[in-house]
Amino acid sequence: MAPFGLMTAGASWLAKSFSVFSSTSTLARCTSVLQATYITPVKCLTSQASGPPKRPLNGYLRFVIQQQPVITRHYPEIKSVDIIRKIAQQWRTLTAEQKKPFEEASRQAREQFKVDLQRYQALLTPAQLQQQIQERRQRLAKRRTIVKKRELTSLGKPKRGRTPLNIYISEHFEEARGLTTQEKMKSMVQDWRSLTSHQKQIYTQLAEDDKIRYKNEIRSWEDHMVEIGREDLVREKILPTKKKPATKAKAKTIKKGTKKGTKKVALKTVKKATAKKPTTSRKLTKG
């Protein structure tokens, strides 16, 4: 079965490709590549015997895997992204009868996937099943985080202020020691630690300025989010408070408590006064 990376890449390229190749000349050139001799019988891509079964590809991605070497042979000079775009254009020009072999293979693979999944889950222990559920929740949470981050980016949310170390790395990354990015980052962190406080002062001041920039931009951005009805993206501390009835009720209870407290104090003083009166009267009678 095709690796998951290819499947995700094909899906993302598909989303980008629908806005490309609108001219008739390009369409004619793309459709000429797809001929009857290039459409080979579609194999049913099954999952691996060991480990959890992988989800099958849909009809379009099966078509991509089949046509990619064909387009590469005809257009060896173009990039991989353009190859996928050409394949997407071909897929849109296919008739329902031409798409049927790919969709039928996908349907058979889905049925086989259900059988393989049941067989695999029957061999798992309860602890392994629980671990799979936890991993699935983590993947979904990560996916939701990515989706939310993309949404915030599309809405123009300003970037957070950079730290002094971030500013130092961005300015000296090119001349850093090391071949890979990880080696360069490690060497720059070591160089940052060896700097004196006076040398770090300029980056600290730049970080403070960037922090002020972020505060101003995030305030105006959140005001705009409130205007367009996206209060869910705004921090709670700038939203209008709606706890006035609760505060009034709390104030009433405090007043009642203070009244009860004063009453208790008054009762205690009366009791003390009454308790001392007999002693004074006894002293007077003795005298």
From TrEMBL:
Keywords: Activator, DNA-binding, Mitochondrion, Mitochondrion nucleoid, Nucleus, Phosphoprotein, Repeat, Transcription, Transcription regulation, Transit peptide. Residues 53-121, 158-222 bind DNA. It is found in: Mitochondrion matrix, Mitochondrion nucleoid. Residues 243-266 are annotated as: Disordered. It comes from the Eukaryota. GO terms for biological process: regulation of transcription by RNA polymerase II. SMART domains: HMG (SM00398). One of its GO terms (molecular function) is DNA binding. The keyword Protein transport does not apply. Pfam families: HMG_box, HMG_box_2. Its main location: mitochondrion. Residues 53-121, 158-222 form the HMG box domain. One of its GO terms (cellular component) is nucleus. Binds to the mitochondrial light strand promoter and functions in mitochondrial transcription regulation. Component of the mitochondrial transcription initiation complex, composed at least of TFB2M, TFAM and POLRMT that is required for basal transcription of mitochondrial DNA. In this complex, TFAM recruits POLRMT to a specific promoter whereas TFB2M induces structural changes in POLRMT to enable promoter opening and trapping of the DNA non-template strand. Required for accurate and efficient promoter recognition by the mitochondrial RNA polymerase. PANTHER family: HIGH MOBILITY GROUP PROTEIN DSP1 (PTHR48112), TRANSCRIPTION FACTOR A, MITOCHONDRIAL (PTHR48112:SF36). Monomer; binds DNA as a monomer. Homodimer. Component of the mitochondrial transcription initiation complex, composed at least of TFB2M, TFAM and POLRMT. In this complex TFAM recruits POLRMT to the promoter whereas TFB2M induces structural changes in POLRMT to enable promoter opening and trapping of the DNA non-template strand. Upon metabolic stress, forms a complex composed of FOXO3, SIRT3, TFAM and POLRMT. Interacts with TFB1M and TFB2M. Interacts with CLPX; this enhances DNA-binding. This is Transcription factor A, mitochondrial.
